[in-house]
Amino acid sequence: MTRPTTAHGAPAEDGGAVTAADPATDTPVAATGGRAWWRGAVGRTALVLLLAVLAVALAYWRSGSGVVVSQAVVTGILIGGVYGLVAMGLTLIFGVLDIVNFAHGAFLAVALYVTVEMTGRFGVHPYLALLVAVPVMFLLGAAVQRGILSFSIGQPLENQLLITLGLALLIDNLLLLVFGPNPRSVALPGDSGVEILGAVATVSRLLAFGVALVLAALLYLLLQRTRLGTAIRAVAANDTGAQLVGIDTRRIYMLTFAIGTACAGAAGVLVSPLVTIEPTTGELFNIIAFVVVVLGGMGNVVGALVGGLLIGLTEQLGALYLPGQSPLLAVFVVFVLVLFLRPQGLFGSKA
Amino acid sequence: MTLLEVESVSKSFRGLRAVDDVSFTVEEGSILGIIGPNGAGKTTLFNLVAGALPPDTGSVRLAGTDVTGAKPHRISHAGMARTFQLMKPFGSLSVLENVAVARMAAGASRRRAPAEAADVVDRVGLTRWRDARSEGLPTAGLKRLELARALASRPRVLLLDEVLAGLVPAERTPVMELLETLRRDDGITLVFVEHIMAAVMRLSDSVLVLDQGRVLTSGEPHQVTQDPRVIEAYLGEEPTVAGP
């Protein structure tokens, strides 16, 4: 027993004293594990960027028109920011509550109709609806978590999955009942085109992208720099441990679900001038958000934003490769490839 | 003053009485060692006291307040902390963040928590590992982190579940010294489950022996270990007498 320890008895470097008593902690990663992960992430980012450049070059070669490609890239990145915001909410909920929330898109649809009503009835500027929709969605999320989902904690995953699926159907049909099946739209006053890199982007798209990025940054700061955020990350990492150090995990679950739902709400307001609004419009965003969450790594908030940009780009470039097909076709090709090659996602690690 | 009063708690799992009518009290500032063969119900008893499991019957009082079956976070706020035999760090967070989370949960502000957490990290001897991701720590480091996180809530009672298990003898001595200073300088009351008899003999003011969920006997350390019933209960067990 001549294992080296320092004068203060600090643990020796090799971790060789791991006994059979604790197999769960017998990780081969030493303290350098974080750095190695970081190096891997940088490598993967470079690879993804390379693929993106290749995809753009291929699109240019296929279409032979710089303007068309440039338009696709600009449109893709702008809408990708919004996809990222939707997916950040979804991935946060998954990371902390371990719930696959099928109702996320339906919540987004609720925010769409809040915007429709506020602009239609009161003539409010669509983006001012953020001030109402975000708090409303936050409260709705909190109520749904505390009133419905909290009873399924600790039950099999399928139960929670079916509950959120049922909730999605319920919300979709309530919207249909209240607002009818006719498509609605929201007009953004003074929406005009702005030229970027030879492409034309509307002010509404630019604003949606900008506000989505600001909200994403705020969410990131909330998670990294506040007491609540630290508690949320602690619960995501280990809820039993979090309870033991005195964190009220029930409260964290509720607030996290509320924050995630508010993200969907904010995204709903931001895209309202860009889409045709029907009770089922949220489903499209739901599908895309799931792909983005898997791409970015389940529970990884930054990964969700990057994944959102990539999927926005894929959707638009895919439409160039496969004209006349659904833009979702290329998205699902990427999705299947990621599931095959890197099922933990590009930046697979928890929030 | 009696700080912790456990009164005839019982817990059954599918008909198996894991803990059967166990009572004990702990005076403020004292150290109680709980020993017993494998499967005697030591960890279950800890779970009942710390709120991880509600007891079927019986009560737990902390400083006169009934905390029976209270949620773990409430018990933590009431002044009781515990460590786990299998460590449960917040793997993706750094060592300092792990402890800062516990400080904040105990009421420290976002601004003060890191400095206060750093003091605790220094105290348990993890200074060099402060910024490492906690999941990369070796066993000895995880044990210390578990202790640091429990201390961060500034408990009056600390429940330690096999805090020395998995450590080589050279690593045990500093941990035992740390536990002694916690009692001496901070006045923290300690209740610990331990297999290593040398540590039980050195640290405990009194010892409680569990066997098959019941209290076999209790008393002063040297008196208890010479009790024939205790020796009999341990027969067939690997005698764990290796010490530092």
From TrEMBL, chain A:
Show the Pfam families listed in the entry. Answer: BPD_transp_2 (PF02653)
Record keywords: Amino-acid transport, Cell membrane, Membrane, Transmembrane, Transmembrane helix, Transport
Cellular compartment(s): Cell membrane
**GO MF, one example:** transmembrane transporter activity
**Transmembrane residues, as ranges?**
41-61, 67-86, 93-115, 127-149, 161-179, 199-223, 252-275, 287-313, 320-341
Annotated stretches, region: Disordered: 1-25
- PANTHER family referenced in this protein's UniProt entry, alphabetically: AMINO ACID ABC TRANSPORTER PERMEASE PROTEIN, BRANCHED-CHAIN AMINO ACID TRANSPORT SYSTEM PERMEASE PROTEIN LIVH
Question: Which family does the record assign?
Answer: Belongs to the binding-protein-dependent transport system permease family. LivHM subfamily.
- Protein name as annotated: Branched-chain amino acid transport system permease protein
Identify the species of origin: Geodermatophilus africanus
Automatic annotation (TrEMBL), chain B:
* Gene3D superfamilies membership: P-loop containing nucleotide triphosphate hydrolases
Is Nucleotide-binding among this UniProt entry's keywords? yes
Which UniProt keywords are present, listed alphabetically?
ATP-binding, Nucleotide-binding, Transport
Ranges for the ABC transporter domain? 4-237
Q: Which GO terms describe its cellular component?
A: plasma membrane
What is the name listed in the Swiss-Prot or TrEMBL entry for this protein? Branched-chain amino acid transport system ATP-binding protein
InterPro entries with a match to the protein in the record: AAA+_ATPase, ABC_AA/LPS_Transport, ABC_transporter-like_ATP-bd, BCA_ABC_TP_C, P-loop_NTPase
The lineage's top-level taxon is Bacteria
